[in-house]
Amino acid sequence: MQTLHLTCNDVQKAADIIKSGGVVAIPTETVYGLAASAFDIDAISKIYKAKGRPSDNPLIVHICDLKELEKVISDFPIKAQELIDEFWPGPITMILPKNEKIPSIVTGGLDSVAVRFPSHILAQEIIRKSGVPLVAPSANLSGRPSPTKFTHVVEDLDGKIDAILDGGDCNFGLESTVISFIDETPILLRPGAITPSEIEAIIGDIIIDDSVYTEIKAEQKVISPGTKYKHYSPKTDVVIVKGSPKSYGEFLNSHIAENPLALCFDEDLPFLETPFLSYGSIEDENEQAKNLFDALRQADKQNVSIIYAHSPSSENMGIAVYNRLIRSAGFNIIEL
Ligand code: TXA
Ligand code: MG
Protein backbone atom coordinates (compact mmCIF):
# COMPACT_ATOMS: atom_id res chain seq x y z
CA MET A 1 0.00 0.00 0.00
CA GLN A 2 1.23 3.50 -0.78
CA THR A 3 1.05 5.83 2.23
CA LEU A 4 0.26 9.47 1.37
CA HIS A 5 2.44 12.06 3.10
CA LEU A 6 0.23 15.04 3.97
CA THR A 7 1.06 18.51 5.31
CA CYS A 8 -0.79 20.83 7.68
CA ASN A 9 -2.67 22.21 4.63
CA ASP A 10 -4.24 18.80 3.99
CA VAL A 11 -6.56 18.59 7.01
CA GLN A 12 -9.62 18.19 4.78
CA LYS A 13 -7.92 15.41 2.82
CA ALA A 14 -7.05 13.59 6.08
CA ALA A 15 -10.67 13.87 7.21
CA ASP A 16 -11.96 12.64 3.83
CA ILE A 17 -9.76 9.54 4.07
CA ILE A 18 -11.07 8.84 7.57
CA LYS A 19 -14.68 9.38 6.45
CA SER A 20 -14.20 6.85 3.67
CA GLY A 21 -12.96 4.19 6.11
CA GLY A 22 -9.20 4.86 6.04
CA VAL A 23 -6.60 5.25 8.80
CA VAL A 24 -4.41 8.35 9.07
CA ALA A 25 -1.55 9.15 11.46
CA ILE A 26 -2.11 12.62 12.95
CA PRO A 27 -0.12 14.86 15.29
CA THR A 28 -1.32 15.59 18.83
CA GLU A 29 0.29 17.57 21.66
CA THR A 30 1.51 14.32 23.28
CA VAL A 31 2.56 11.87 20.51
CA TYR A 32 1.34 11.05 16.98
CA GLY A 33 -1.87 8.99 16.94
CA LEU A 34 -3.19 6.53 14.35
CA ALA A 35 -6.74 7.75 13.73
CA ALA A 36 -9.95 6.22 12.42
CA SER A 37 -13.68 6.68 13.05
CA ALA A 38 -14.66 5.34 16.48
CA PHE A 39 -17.78 3.81 14.88
CA ASP A 40 -16.10 2.08 11.90
CA ILE A 41 -15.25 -1.49 12.90
CA ASP A 42 -13.40 -2.30 9.66
CA ALA A 43 -11.20 0.79 9.92
CA ILE A 44 -10.47 0.00 13.59
CA SER A 45 -9.41 -3.54 12.65
CA LYS A 46 -6.92 -1.98 10.22
CA ILE A 47 -5.38 -0.03 13.13
CA TYR A 48 -4.85 -3.18 15.23
CA LYS A 49 -3.36 -4.94 12.19
CA ALA A 50 -1.02 -2.09 11.11
CA LYS A 51 0.35 -1.70 14.67
CA GLY A 52 0.47 -5.42 15.43
CA ARG A 53 -1.53 -4.56 18.56
CA PRO A 54 -3.12 -7.28 20.74
CA SER A 55 -6.91 -7.10 20.34
CA ASP A 56 -7.56 -6.89 24.11
CA ASN A 57 -5.63 -3.59 24.39
CA PRO A 58 -8.32 -0.87 24.09
CA LEU A 59 -8.10 2.43 22.23
CA ILE A 60 -8.64 6.04 23.33
CA VAL A 61 -11.58 7.90 21.74
CA HIS A 62 -10.68 11.49 20.81
CA ILE A 63 -13.31 14.25 20.74
CA CYS A 64 -13.18 17.94 19.80
CA ASP A 65 -16.24 19.20 21.64
CA LEU A 66 -17.68 18.33 25.07
CA LYS A 67 -21.07 17.76 23.41
CA GLU A 68 -19.61 14.66 21.75
CA LEU A 69 -19.17 13.05 25.18
CA GLU A 70 -22.78 11.90 25.12
CA LYS A 71 -22.01 9.72 22.06
CA VAL A 72 -19.18 8.03 23.94
CA ILE A 73 -19.96 7.65 27.66
CA SER A 74 -23.02 6.64 29.71
CA ASP A 75 -22.25 8.32 33.04
CA PHE A 76 -20.30 11.46 33.99
CA PRO A 77 -19.05 11.38 37.61
CA ILE A 78 -18.62 14.78 39.25
CA LYS A 79 -14.87 14.34 39.84
CA ALA A 80 -14.35 13.63 36.14
CA GLN A 81 -16.28 16.81 35.31
CA GLU A 82 -14.05 18.81 37.64
CA LEU A 83 -10.89 17.52 35.95
CA ILE A 84 -12.35 18.12 32.51
CA ASP A 85 -13.19 21.73 33.44
CA GLU A 86 -9.60 22.24 34.53
CA PHE A 87 -7.53 20.30 31.99
CA TRP A 88 -9.47 19.81 28.72
CA PRO A 89 -8.58 20.33 25.98
CA GLY A 90 -5.26 18.80 27.02
CA PRO A 91 -3.07 15.77 27.68
CA ILE A 92 -5.28 13.80 30.09
CA THR A 93 -7.48 10.79 29.27
CA MET A 94 -10.49 9.79 31.39
CA ILE A 95 -11.75 6.21 31.68
CA LEU A 96 -15.55 6.36 32.05
CA PRO A 97 -18.54 4.01 31.70
CA LYS A 98 -19.02 3.24 28.01
CA ASN A 99 -21.99 4.22 25.88
CA GLU A 100 -23.61 1.31 24.02
CA LYS A 101 -22.94 3.07 20.67
CA ILE A 102 -19.18 2.52 21.04
CA PRO A 103 -18.29 -0.83 19.42
CA SER A 104 -16.57 -3.37 21.67
CA ILE A 105 -13.53 -3.54 19.33
CA VAL A 106 -12.68 -0.04 20.63
CA THR A 107 -12.65 -1.08 24.28
CA GLY A 108 -11.24 -4.60 23.95
CA GLY A 109 -14.54 -5.90 25.33
CA LEU A 110 -14.46 -3.71 28.50
CA ASP A 111 -17.56 -1.82 29.78
CA SER A 112 -15.48 1.34 30.10
CA VAL A 113 -14.08 3.68 27.46
CA ALA A 114 -11.06 5.99 27.43
CA VAL A 115 -11.80 9.55 26.22
CA ARG A 116 -9.54 12.48 25.46
CA PHE A 117 -10.03 16.01 24.05
CA PRO A 118 -6.62 16.93 22.60
CA SER A 119 -5.43 20.54 22.60
CA HIS A 120 -3.51 20.24 19.29
CA ILE A 121 -5.26 22.47 16.74
CA LEU A 122 -4.67 20.14 13.76
CA ALA A 123 -5.95 17.15 15.74
CA GLN A 124 -9.07 19.12 16.70
CA GLU A 125 -9.68 20.20 13.09
CA ILE A 126 -9.30 16.67 11.75
CA ILE A 127 -11.78 15.34 14.32
CA ARG A 128 -14.22 18.18 13.55
CA LYS A 129 -14.01 17.70 9.77
CA SER A 130 -14.34 13.91 10.14
CA GLY A 131 -17.67 14.55 11.90
CA VAL A 132 -17.20 11.69 14.41
CA PRO A 133 -15.04 10.93 17.46
CA LEU A 134 -11.78 9.26 16.41
CA VAL A 135 -9.93 6.36 18.01
CA ALA A 136 -6.19 6.99 18.02
CA PRO A 137 -3.59 4.79 19.69
CA SER A 138 0.01 6.00 19.46
CA ALA A 139 1.15 5.67 15.81
CA ASN A 140 4.03 3.24 16.42
CA LEU A 141 4.44 -0.49 15.89
CA SER A 142 3.29 -2.22 19.06
CA GLY A 143 6.15 -2.40 21.59
CA ARG A 144 8.24 0.38 19.98
CA PRO A 145 8.73 3.87 21.46
CA SER A 146 5.77 6.15 20.65
CA PRO A 147 6.33 8.57 17.73
CA THR A 148 7.02 12.20 18.55
CA LYS A 149 8.16 13.18 15.03
CA PHE A 150 6.77 12.65 11.51
CA THR A 151 9.89 10.59 10.64
CA HIS A 152 9.18 8.16 13.53
CA VAL A 153 5.75 7.38 12.07
CA VAL A 154 7.26 6.91 8.59
CA GLU A 155 9.86 4.53 10.10
CA ASP A 156 7.18 2.30 11.68
CA LEU A 157 4.08 2.55 9.48
CA ASP A 158 4.96 3.72 5.94
CA GLY A 159 3.32 1.30 3.48
CA LYS A 160 0.92 0.00 6.16
CA ILE A 161 -1.60 2.87 6.51
CA ASP A 162 -3.43 5.31 4.19
CA ALA A 163 -1.72 8.56 5.16
CA ILE A 164 0.54 10.40 7.62
CA LEU A 165 -0.01 14.10 8.30
CA ASP A 166 3.18 15.98 9.15
CA GLY A 167 2.45 18.39 12.00
CA GLY A 168 6.07 18.81 13.13
CA ASP A 169 7.40 17.59 16.49
CA CYS A 170 4.98 16.85 19.31
CA ASN A 171 5.11 19.41 22.05
CA PHE A 172 5.03 17.20 25.15
CA GLY A 173 6.56 13.96 23.84
CA LEU A 174 5.00 11.34 26.17
CA GLU A 175 1.46 9.98 25.99
CA SER A 176 -1.40 11.49 28.00
CA THR A 177 -2.04 10.94 31.70
CA VAL A 178 -4.71 8.19 32.05
CA ILE A 179 -7.10 8.23 35.03
CA SER A 180 -9.97 5.84 35.68
CA PHE A 181 -13.31 6.87 37.22
CA ILE A 182 -14.81 3.38 37.23
CA ASP A 183 -14.23 2.77 40.97
CA GLU A 184 -15.18 5.01 43.92
CA THR A 185 -11.67 6.47 44.23
CA PRO A 186 -10.08 7.58 40.94
CA ILE A 187 -7.04 5.53 39.89
CA LEU A 188 -4.07 6.90 37.96
CA LEU A 189 -3.18 4.25 35.36
CA ARG A 190 -0.54 6.12 33.35
CA PRO A 191 1.37 9.23 34.42
CA GLY A 192 1.79 12.04 31.88
CA ALA A 193 2.03 15.81 31.54
CA ILE A 194 -0.71 16.36 34.13
CA THR A 195 0.86 15.24 37.42
CA PRO A 196 -0.74 13.40 40.38
CA SER A 197 -0.40 16.50 42.57
CA GLU A 198 -2.11 18.71 39.97
CA ILE A 199 -4.97 16.20 39.87
CA GLU A 200 -5.21 15.87 43.66
CA ALA A 201 -5.34 19.68 43.97
CA ILE A 202 -8.67 19.56 42.09
CA ILE A 203 -10.38 16.30 43.20
CA GLY A 204 -8.58 15.15 46.36
CA ASP A 205 -6.89 11.80 46.93
CA ILE A 206 -6.36 9.40 44.05
CA ILE A 207 -4.79 5.94 43.94
CA ILE A 208 -1.62 5.42 41.91
CA ASP A 209 -1.96 2.00 40.27
CA ASP A 210 0.85 -0.49 41.10
CA SER A 211 1.64 -0.81 37.38
CA VAL A 212 2.95 2.77 37.30
CA TYR A 213 6.11 1.75 39.18
CA THR A 214 6.27 -2.04 39.11
CA GLU A 215 6.17 -4.90 36.67
CA ILE A 216 2.84 -6.63 36.15
CA LYS A 217 3.14 -10.41 35.91
CA ALA A 218 1.34 -12.17 33.05
CA GLU A 219 -1.19 -13.85 35.38
CA GLN A 220 -2.03 -10.67 37.38
CA LYS A 221 -5.40 -8.99 36.80
CA VAL A 222 -4.93 -5.47 35.43
CA ILE A 223 -7.24 -2.47 35.08
CA SER A 224 -5.51 -1.15 31.98
CA PRO A 225 -4.59 -3.94 29.56
CA GLY A 226 -1.82 -1.80 28.03
CA THR A 227 0.22 -2.00 31.25
CA LYS A 228 0.93 -5.73 30.89
CA TYR A 229 2.56 -5.50 27.44
CA LYS A 230 6.21 -4.83 26.66
CA HIS A 231 6.61 -1.19 25.75
CA TYR A 232 8.80 1.54 24.36
CA SER A 233 11.61 -0.88 23.62
CA PRO A 234 14.50 -0.23 21.30
CA LYS A 235 16.04 -3.38 19.77
CA THR A 236 19.15 -3.01 21.95
CA ASP A 237 18.71 -3.97 25.64
CA VAL A 238 18.25 -1.06 28.03
CA VAL A 239 19.34 -1.09 31.70
CA ILE A 240 18.52 1.76 34.09
CA VAL A 241 21.27 3.02 36.36
CA LYS A 242 20.48 5.05 39.50
CA GLY A 243 23.21 7.24 40.96
CA SER A 244 24.92 10.65 40.86
CA PRO A 245 26.43 11.93 37.58
CA LYS A 246 29.89 11.02 38.92
CA SER A 247 29.03 7.46 39.99
CA TYR A 248 27.03 6.91 36.77
CA GLY A 249 30.04 8.10 34.71
CA GLU A 250 32.42 5.81 36.63
CA PHE A 251 30.04 2.86 36.16
CA LEU A 252 29.88 3.44 32.38
CA ASN A 253 33.65 3.86 32.04
CA SER A 254 34.25 0.59 33.91
CA HIS A 255 31.88 -1.23 31.50
CA ILE A 256 33.45 0.10 28.30
CA ALA A 257 34.36 -3.44 27.15
CA GLU A 258 30.62 -4.15 26.78
CA ASN A 259 30.35 -1.58 23.94
CA PRO A 260 27.79 0.50 25.85
CA LEU A 261 25.90 3.69 25.03
CA ALA A 262 25.25 6.14 27.87
CA LEU A 263 21.69 7.46 27.54
CA CYS A 264 22.38 10.29 29.91
CA PHE A 265 21.84 13.85 31.10
CA ASP A 266 23.89 16.91 30.07
CA GLU A 267 25.35 16.98 33.61
CA ASP A 268 26.87 13.49 33.11
CA LEU A 269 29.00 14.45 30.10
CA PRO A 270 32.14 15.60 32.02
CA PHE A 271 32.36 12.14 33.66
CA LEU A 272 31.87 9.95 30.57
CA GLU A 273 34.50 8.29 28.37
CA THR A 274 32.00 6.09 26.47
CA PRO A 275 29.72 6.97 23.53
CA PHE A 276 26.74 8.96 24.83
CA LEU A 277 23.39 10.45 23.90
CA SER A 278 21.91 13.07 26.20
CA TYR A 279 18.13 13.32 26.64
CA GLY A 280 18.26 16.67 28.42
CA SER A 281 19.23 18.32 31.67
CA ILE A 282 18.87 16.36 34.92
CA GLU A 283 16.76 19.28 36.21
CA ASP A 284 14.40 19.70 33.25
CA GLU A 285 11.67 17.03 33.17
CA ASN A 286 9.88 18.69 30.25
CA GLU A 287 13.00 18.47 28.12
CA GLN A 288 13.52 14.81 29.14
CA ALA A 289 9.89 14.01 28.26
CA LYS A 290 10.19 15.68 24.87
CA ASN A 291 13.45 13.91 23.94
CA LEU A 292 13.12 10.44 25.49
CA PHE A 293 11.37 8.51 22.70
CA ASP A 294 13.51 10.07 19.98
CA ALA A 295 16.64 9.25 22.01
CA LEU A 296 15.53 5.60 22.38
CA ARG A 297 15.03 5.37 18.61
CA GLN A 298 18.38 7.04 17.89
CA ALA A 299 20.16 4.81 20.40
CA ASP A 300 19.19 1.79 18.31
CA LYS A 301 21.04 3.16 15.30
CA GLN A 302 24.37 3.58 17.12
CA ASN A 303 25.80 0.10 16.77
CA VAL A 304 26.20 -0.44 20.49
CA SER A 305 25.59 -3.66 22.45
CA ILE A 306 23.84 -2.29 25.53
CA ILE A 307 22.18 0.99 26.56
CA TYR A 308 22.76 2.17 30.14
CA ALA A 309 20.15 4.89 30.82
CA HIS A 310 20.68 7.31 33.70
CA SER A 311 17.51 7.20 35.78
CA PRO A 312 15.35 10.34 35.93
CA SER A 313 13.84 11.46 39.22
CA SER A 314 10.41 9.96 39.88
CA GLU A 315 9.05 13.19 41.43
CA ASN A 316 6.35 15.37 39.80
CA MET A 317 6.46 15.13 36.00
CA GLY A 318 9.56 12.93 36.31
CA ILE A 319 7.23 10.06 37.25
CA ALA A 320 6.02 9.99 33.60
CA VAL A 321 9.56 9.87 32.22
CA TYR A 322 10.57 7.24 34.80
CA ASN A 323 7.46 5.15 34.04
CA ARG A 324 8.32 4.96 30.29
CA LEU A 325 12.01 4.30 30.87
CA ILE A 326 11.51 1.42 33.33
CA ARG A 327 9.22 -0.22 30.75
CA SER A 328 11.73 0.22 27.95
CA ALA A 329 14.30 -1.43 30.26
CA GLY A 330 11.96 -4.31 31.12
CA PHE A 331 12.27 -3.18 34.81
CA ASN A 332 16.01 -3.92 34.78
CA ILE A 333 17.50 -1.45 37.29
CA ILE A 334 20.98 -1.12 38.85
CA GLU A 335 21.33 1.02 41.99
CA LEU A 336 24.87 2.32 42.51
O1 TXA B 1 -1.46 10.80 24.40
C1 TXA B 1 -2.13 9.79 24.13
O2 TXA B 1 -2.93 9.28 24.93
C2 TXA B 1 -1.94 9.18 22.72
C3 TXA B 1 -2.41 10.21 21.70
C4 TXA B 1 -2.36 9.71 20.29
O3 TXA B 1 -3.69 10.68 22.04
N1 TXA B 1 -2.62 7.94 22.61
C5 TXA B 1 -2.18 6.82 23.25
O4 TXA B 1 -2.94 5.68 22.98
O5 TXA B 1 -1.22 6.78 23.97
P1 TXA B 1 -2.43 4.20 23.30
O6 TXA B 1 -3.46 3.33 22.68
O7 TXA B 1 -1.05 4.05 22.82
O8 TXA B 1 -2.53 4.07 24.86
C6 TXA B 1 -3.81 3.98 25.48
C7 TXA B 1 -3.67 3.35 26.84
C8 TXA B 1 -3.35 1.87 26.76
O9 TXA B 1 -2.43 1.57 27.79
C9 TXA B 1 -4.69 1.21 27.00
O10 TXA B 1 -4.57 -0.07 27.59
C10 TXA B 1 -5.36 2.20 27.95
O11 TXA B 1 -4.94 3.47 27.50
N2 TXA B 1 -6.83 2.13 27.86
C11 TXA B 1 -7.62 2.44 26.80
N3 TXA B 1 -8.91 2.21 27.09
C12 TXA B 1 -8.97 1.76 28.35
C13 TXA B 1 -10.01 1.34 29.23
N4 TXA B 1 -11.29 1.34 28.84
N5 TXA B 1 -9.68 0.93 30.47
C14 TXA B 1 -8.39 0.93 30.88
N6 TXA B 1 -7.36 1.30 30.10
C15 TXA B 1 -7.63 1.71 28.86
MG1 MG C 1 0.82 3.27 22.69
Descriptive keywords:
single chain; 336 residues; alpha/beta; eleven-stranded mixed β-sheet; five-stranded parallel β-sheet; 10 helices; binds threonylcarbamoyladenylate; binds magnesium ion
- Rg over CA atoms: 20 Å
Quickly give the structural class. Answer: alpha/beta
Helix amount = 25-40%
* pLDDT averaged over residues: 95
H-E order: EHEEHEHEHEHEHEEEHEEHEEHEHE
β content, as a range?
15-25%
Number of separate helices: 10
Quick one: biggest sheet? 11 strands, mixed
The ligands found in this model are: threonylcarbamoyladenylate, magnesium ion
pLDDT under 50 segments (min length 5)? none
Order of strands across the main sheet: 1-8-2-3-7-4-6-5-9-10-11
Q: Span from first to last CA?
A: 49 Å
Q: What general outline do the C-alpha atoms trace?
A: globular
**Got a strand count?**
16
List the helices and strands and how they pair.
Layout: E1 4-6, H1 11-19, E2 24-26, E3 33-37, H2 41-51, E4 60-62, H3 78-87, E5 92-97, H4 104-107, E6 112-116, H5 121-130, E7 134-135, H6 150-157, E8 163-165, E9 177-180, E10 187-190, H7 196-203, E11 207-208, E12 238-242, H8 245-254, E13 260-264, E14 276-278, H9 285-299, E15 306-310, H10 318-328, E16 333-335
Helix pairs in contact: 1-5, 9-10
